[in-house]
Design brief:
5-stranded antiparallel beta sheet, mainly beta
């Protein structure tokens, strides 16, 4: 069985500011001029490989664009989504018996983060953002910002911030 380190090397992944590892693999060359929501032009879409190891988390963050996560390989991943004063937890994976999904659409403006729940494991995903990802549209979220709206999810918020 391959190790997380082997996949990091094979896919040429780098550390991601939200946690885990990534590599951009696609950036559509069509640019959109939608300055009412964004600070300039955005590519039509972007896509990355993303890997998260057990013990790491994808910290709570928000994007101005929709993002789709695609499960590729490894252990299942819990994705915690806070949107419109509602909390939902999804499991991204490939087990029909455990009600896992192969892909997950996260709406623009939602706050979300993720964790690998199996010890000594990792998950490899694809993430597509449209309009395309730009760091100006990426915001890490603090625990204090979340507690007032989601007091029943304090332990999850602490884990992911």
């Amino acid at each position: 069985m391959e190790t997380a380190s082997q996949w990091v090397q094979y896919l040429n992944l780098a550390a991601h500011p939200e946690g885990g590892y990534f590599k951009e693999i696609y950036r559509n060359n069509i640019e959109l001029n939608i300055s009412s929501k964004y600070s300039g032009q955005r590519n039509l879409a972007t896509s990355i490989y993303y890997m998260l190891k057990s013990g790491q988390v994808s910290k709570l963050h928000r994007l101005k664009s929709d993002e789709i996560w695609y499960f590729h390989y490894g252990a299942a991943l819990k994705v915690h989504v806070f949107h419109n004063d509602a909390y939902q937890c999804y499991t991204l994976g490939n087990s029909l018996n455990h009600n896992q999904v192969l892909q997950l659409i996260i709406q623009a403006g939602a706050v979300f983060g993720a964790e690998v729940t199996d010890p000594n494991s990792f998950s490899i995903l694809g993430c597509m953002v449209s309009p395309g990802f730009h760091f100006d549209d990426f915001e890490l979220i603090s625990a204090n910002e979340m507690y007032a709206h989601f007091p029943n999810q304090k332990s999850i918020i602490q884990l992911l911030t």
